[in-house]
Each structure stands twice: as structure tokens, then as C-alpha cells.
Amino acid sequence: MLVRCVDGRPVSAVTTHCLAWLTAWVAAAGTTALLLVWDKASWHVSQAVRAWSKAHNRHVKPAGGCRVVVCPLPVKSPWLNRIEPTWVHGKRAIAEPDRKLRVAELQHRICAYYGCELFEPIAQ
Fold first, then answer.
1. Which of 28, 35, 37 has the alpha carbon at shortest distance from 65?
2. Residue 38: what are its φ and ψ, rounded to 5°?
3. 10 and 124 Cβ atoms separated by less than 8 Å
4. How far apart are CA 66 and CA 24, in angstroms?
5. d(CA 58, CA 29)
6. Which among 11, 53, 56, 61 would be 20 to 30 A from 44, CA to CA?
7. How large is the average pLDDT for residues 77-91?
8. HEC states along the chain?
9. How far apart are CA 91 and CA 48, in angstroms?
């Protein structure tokens, strides 16, 4: 599992920046395709993100690299997304009902629970 946080709201510009970083990161590991199982969040289905994905795939097809394959989920179908139960258990293990956690503490708890590396957050 790979977790990367965003400073601010997850808008289309941040999504395309994250996808560029992610495709470069997995391509460096020798992966040739990145499968994204996405819901209908506005930053997933925006014209900017779709245009970036098409342009990226056109570029990497002849040049080599990691292409992006998007598998959209139907509306309101969390049972089809296999990661949902993982998120539910993670939220219950990490959150505290009586107080809000600071960002740094939350990031540390997420990475400790899922056993993943903490990457630098994406700034807007």
C-alpha cells in the first residue's frame, strides 16, 4: 500500500500532479501499467484528469513507461471496491472519538497502521 497526503483539497491539479509522481515512481520499479479503481469523486472524473491520462498514455506508448488504466466504479457501490473494508478498519484503529488529531500525528498513525512509508505531502 502506498499513502501520500495532500495539503488542502484534492482538486484536479493535485490529482494530475500525484498521478505524474506515481507513474514515474512505479515505472522506476519496472511496472508498465497502473490500474486505478476509482469512484466518481469530482477530482477523479474531471476533464483535466481525463485529458492528462489520455495525453500521458499517448506519450508512454511509443516512449515506454507506465500507462494509466482507469476502472471506474458504479455510483454508490462501496461493496465493489475491495479497499473499502481496509479503510473502515483503518479509520477505527487510527481515529480517536474524543479529540481531533494533528496532521503529523494522523500521518504517523496511518503509516504505522498500514506499514507504509511516509512521503512528502503534495502542496497546492
1. 28
2. -120, 145
3. no
4. 7
5. 21
6. 61
7. 78
8. CCECCECCCCCHHHHHHHHHHHHHHHHHCCCCEEEEEECCCHHHHCHHHHHHHHHHHHHHHHHCCCEEEEEECCCCCHHHCCCHHHHHHHHHHHCCCCCCCCHHHHHHHHHHHHCCCECCCECC
9. 30
For residue 1, the one-letter residue type is: M
The C-alpha cell 500532479 sits at 17
The answer to whether the beta carbons of residues 14 and 122 sit under 8 Å apart is: yes
What is the identity of the amino acid at 5? Answer: C
Interval 88-119: pLDDT, tens: 888 889 988 899 999 889 889 999 998 988 88
